[in-house]
User: Fold Crossover junction endodeoxyribonuclease RuvC from Candidatus Planktophila versatilis.
Amino acid sequence: MSQIYKRVLGVDPGLTRCGVGVVEGAIGSPLTLIGVGVILTPPDAALELRLLQLESELEEWIALHKPTVIAVERVFSQHNVRTVMGTAQAAGIALLVAARRNIPVMMHTPSEVKAAVTGSGRANKVQVAEMVKRLLNLESIPKPVDSTDALALAICHIWRGGANTKIAEAVAIEKSRLAKLVKK
Amino acid sequence: MSQIYKRVLGVDPGLTRCGVGVVEGAIGSPLTLIGVGVILTPPDAALELRLLQLESELEEWIALHKPTVIAVERVFSQHNVRTVMGTAQAAGIALLVAARRNIPVMMHTPSEVKAAVTGSGRANKVQVAEMVKRLLNLESIPKPVDSTDALALAICHIWRGGANTKIAEAVAIEKSRLAKLVKK
Assistant:
């Protein structure tokens, strides 16, 4: 089976803290940590400036690490209704930045990510962080801890990949081509 | 009292239908309708492409009408939790586009808008539309009807303006200057 190497930017969306992690690998091959971090925007700044800062820092991550795919955690509304608005907006910015650069983007739910990385959709944060450390062959859990969710997301994307992702990417490219045609 | 003329782009955020309306005027002067419409994005398209389309059409509205201020309806989470995510993301795009171009942006709640235009925070859609028609001295209610909310938002912004808005604008400019400094 031929291996499809991917460089995935995982984005764990948030307005105050947005986790970002880049992992390279293919199904059945070792995974490599390329970069990890958290984008912080000041809670007391105007919302529009926080969104603008998030956009520009995501652009920088993309320019630096040139991901072939972006994986964004799917936001659910059952969480705290106050924070969900900011989380939805942060996720929206990540999707927008990906679409603008024609980078295929996919969303995965938190339980899909946990299941992919630990085998259980109900794993806790520590279990996820521990597995991320092992899977990336690291000496210790990456800091800050919230960034491990972004790495888990990237790993999930690589492993759920294969044929399905290839199809999804082809569809994404086609959709974007059609969108351009539709826009006259 | 010197009159401060404003050209306000009102944005009634939505993913499937995003109302946009541009009104020019000052407190105590007649209001002028500059443009009105609805940005539609296909519900069956990928979310990232819908956000990208919304961004580019908002950019076109701004390029065409050169608003001095953008007013966005403040999204509340007590609505349908499903649609609120898309609405929050659409509002986020409007805020982002404004911040990127350094155009002051403010949010008003639906009841502030209704109260400003009809005198009652609990006015219904028809009452708002009727008042928008009268205030802009139009022969009939602008179509499509959802676009009247965007016009009401723009009118609300002009009327709530004066000193407060001048201060808010000064603060916005200062914040944006500081944000640039903070970003090294």
